[in-house]
User: Fold DUF5689 domain-containing protein from Aequorivita antarctica.
Amino acid sequence: MKNLKNSKLLLFLFFLGMIVTSCVQDDDYNAPEINSQEPNVAANIDIQTIKDIYRGYEPKIIEAGDGSARDLYIEAYVVSSDETGNFYKTLVIQDAPENPTTGVSISTNSTDLYTKFEPGRKIYFRVNGLYIGEYAGLPTIGVQDGDEVGRIDVIEFESRILRSTEIAEMVPTVISIAETSNSERLNTLVQFEDVQFPDGIAGVEHYGNLTNTYGVNRDVENCDGQIVILRTSGYADFKNFRLPEGNGTLTAVLSIFNSDVQLFIRDINDVAMEGERCN
Assistant:
């Protein structure tokens, strides 16, 4: 009788194992795709229209102009990446993968955004009920936090954002340092040609501070001596890299902090300075 019970137990365990195995399609136990179909929504408002709602001072709520409670979706492309730690709890989007007219930051408590919303990923984002304002001069969508724009809760953020199946090639807009004063370029991917780090820091200093986690500003110059700030987070995993000595191109997301225009790179590959330096 005991042997019979053992046999039944072994048979049960065998079939249970077969069921579990059949539920897994490969040896890596990979999670399924986040979405394999295009979201069934259509954009009915654009980034510029949202930005035009804000007229300064306190953030303004985003709502339908006809007074209805209908959902409002924007369609946009991701330009930021928090994979290296240089962006934090922020998703930066622009309205086209090439020759964009405008962009905006989305402030959220979500992290590891790059795992779902990498650069080039097309998204749809439901904005009604959120607020448009500025964080230190940077156009930002979020929740109202007094006179400022606060971060969107993780659960709410995930309920509002839809991930398209499209991943576009992002073509940075080539601009000069003088053109960084154009506010419509903020929150977009830009590229500077024929630039370098100044004498005294090129090949000497690092992108970040090696002794603490404070952010660091490094000047970038063109051959006419015009300067723009490259900002590196104290948590960026490339902060220990030494600044290149040569001249070349710099691709970055254009930002601002109060009156200081700033550039944020996604990773070290955004910097290609191997050419001969300016005189």
Notes: The two ends are 94 Å apart (CA to CA). Residues 1-6, 13-33 have pLDDT under 50 and may be disordered. The chain has two domains: 47-167, 173-275. The first strand starts at residue 60 and ends at 61.
